[in-house]
Amino acid sequence: MPAFRQVGEKQLPNPVLCMAWSPKRDLIALANTTGELLLHRLANFQRVWSLPPNEYTGKEITAIAWRPDGKILAFSVGDTKQVVLCDVEKAEILHLFPVQHPISCMHWMEVIEESSTLSSFYNSEDESKLFLPKLPTLPKSEEKSDEIMNLLGEVRLNILVLGGGAGFVELYAYGMYKIATLNGRLYKCRNLNFLSSDLKSLSVITEVRSVDNNPEICYLQLDTGLLSDCLPEVTRMARKFTHISTLLQYLRLSLTCMCEAWEDILMQMDLRLTKFVQEKNTSTQVQDEFLELLLWGQSSPELQALLMNQLTVKGLKKLGQSIESSYSSIQKLVISHLQSGSEALLYHLSEVKGMSLWKQKFQPLGLDSAAIEDAITAVGSFSLKANELLQVIDKSMKNFKAFFRWLYVAMLRMCEEHVPPELNKMTQKDIAFVADFLSEHFSENEELFDRKGKYFNVERVGQYLKDEDEDLVSPPNTKGNQWLRFLQESSHLKESPLLFPSYPQKSLHFVKRMMEGVIESCLQKPAEVIGKSVKQAVFLSLYTVPESSENTPRLFELPSLWNDKKTNMHYVVFCMPEVSPSKLYLLRKGTDPYRQIPNSLIVHLLLRPDFVCSCLDARFYDDEILTVVLDVPEEYRGRVLAQLPLGSALSCETEFNWDPSLRLDQQSDAIPCQGLVLGNQLRDLENMKAQFVAVNGIRKVACVLSANLRHVRVFEMDVEDEEDEEGESQNASADQDGLETTGEGEQEAEDEAEEHGGEVYQKTEDHLESEEALELS
């Protein structure tokens, strides 16, 4: 029987640009030319969900990568220059951040180094939960706010590596916090970059222009020794800064909810007042109509018609309750979300400041205590501004309640109904509250209130929620404030660093943006210092490629990189078709760039000595096996999927003396050759012009893609012995059952969805949990 078992096949409506297997589940992510992100499962290649492109994220996906735990999928978007983090279970965008250049390649790795210091940190990482309350979920988005906090993932350090043009390389701890930036190099990252699991070096396949102006493929190894030497400190710092980044995202969502509640108040009142203003024949304003009713107890026929026919007594009660609910929502968001988030930010920043004062450990990483102190001050100012907004809301609610109680009594009198005695009493203070409400909420001065309802505004509160640089229209009245007067008169306290500035003329949004800018500046300094510490250790020129190959999708092109974690080695596999299409080249370097590698640097593999066959694609299945797609002459086999054991090749002892002044293809005749036997680990790919392959040796799966980028086949590997694989087959079927499926009916629905652009196929949480439990068992 064939060595590999085919479990699915599909003709896709749009060409695939990149594909990657999940490290933990039998799921594969694909991105196509329309900008759509697709998630398919192994069984029958059925679709789980699709994430269509949009203007917010972009429409040109250039690379994808899985977080090592398989719960988050990262993809880069070329037209908007963003990196997006997507939740795998719900197909929801959790986080995105901009980058300077379009990303051409990305890789998400996990650090496996162990030490007593790291172990103690892993065990004590959640100490903040002992001092800080759990952040409350956000209204209307409970699940999303929980997922935002789950972006942190596991404590063990993992790093998302991004590469692009102009030598652009960035490293993001936990996929969120930038810990290193590499710029200014005269090369372009071609298709893949690999950070070793011991953090000692970064391998990059680059492209430079040769003397004859053709693209020249080179191997570059960068020394990242600072990350390796300071691994415990890097992990602690990165974890704290990732907490901070997550909290900033939480505060942004909280402010968005506050703005929505504010807009609800405007809409509720405007709906009631629009028809009245449109139908009234007088030239008086809405404010004047209500003031006349307040002062003289008489109203115009238009106002009386509005109150009695359109608003009604019952409707006034509902309107009052609705607006009070919106005010209360803003108030609760400030108290439970903004203030709680600010306290958590202050806690984590204070811990980072403590790290920065331990100069022996953290100064080499660029932690600047002065910059962190500025960030703490900015968070304190944001907290003060949130507290100021609370006081404004409290005053506005007093005016609001007095206005609606007065209007309710006035309408009862118009109806000649009985007025309860407790409502009939109105003090001078109550009248002042009503007058304040009318002057604040019904003003039609366009110069003062440019963002308000058409006939009603809540500018006293709304001015704090404007995302603008202008000063507040109605800043709080601080006359008579004894504390402020005391500060102004005290020469010692006036400029004291212990006191947070309050910015009384600025909005909450403005102070929030200022806080984000200061924290961002604080976060960037370590990235700059670590980036400058990265040095070029190895530069090897491999071969040139003709310009005609530029049309090939870069993410599928060789060379392919691999990191052997057991032996701490980097492997690069590539072909040089211009030299010999039947030869496969293997380059190996230690993850320590200064470690001398015994035996040969280059192993030259001869695939089939009896006839010419070319290698179309090659990917590392595991440390000792290479999965290849071969183009064998039609009279023999055609396209073939094969597994190549590398044991004998890696043990080759023949030395190759590399002349660094020449490209490898210019000295290929001197490279020692070694035959390689395919054996029975292969399968003919009939009726398919196969070209590319993606594999996962942990899950023992492979996906083959055709030359036209539309035809895919998925295989289970290592299944010759059915008895040994019985348990695995059961797991695979259980995995299929764990996702929503209705048999043939779903398959037909899926095909129809693909023809029309696709839609999200949701999975229930229980199903996903059972699926994950089965797969990880």
Describe the structure concisely for a colleague.
Residues 755-767 have a biased composition (Basic and acidic residues). The chain is an alpha+beta fold.
List keywords for this structure.
19 helices, 777 residues, disordered C terminus, single chain, 5-stranded mixed beta sheet, 25% strand, 37% helix, 4-stranded antiparallel beta sheet, alpha+beta
How would you explain this protein's 3D organization?
- By secondary structure, the protein is α+β, with helices and mostly antiparallel strands.
- The chain is 37% helix and 25% strand.
- The protein contains 19 helices and 29 strands.
- A 5-stranded mixed sheet has the order 18-19-20-21-25, with no helix packed on it. It has a 4-stranded antiparallel sheet with strand order 1-29-28-27, with no helix packed on it.
- The longest helix has 49 residues, at 231-279.
- The model is unreliable at 445-454 and 721-777 (pLDDT under 50).
- Pathway: Protein modification; protein ubiquitination.
- Residues 755-767 have a biased composition (Basic and acidic residues).
- Residues 561-716 form the Anaphase-promoting complex subunit 4 C-terminal half WD40 domain.
- Residues 719-728, 743-754, 768-777 have a biased composition (Acidic residues).
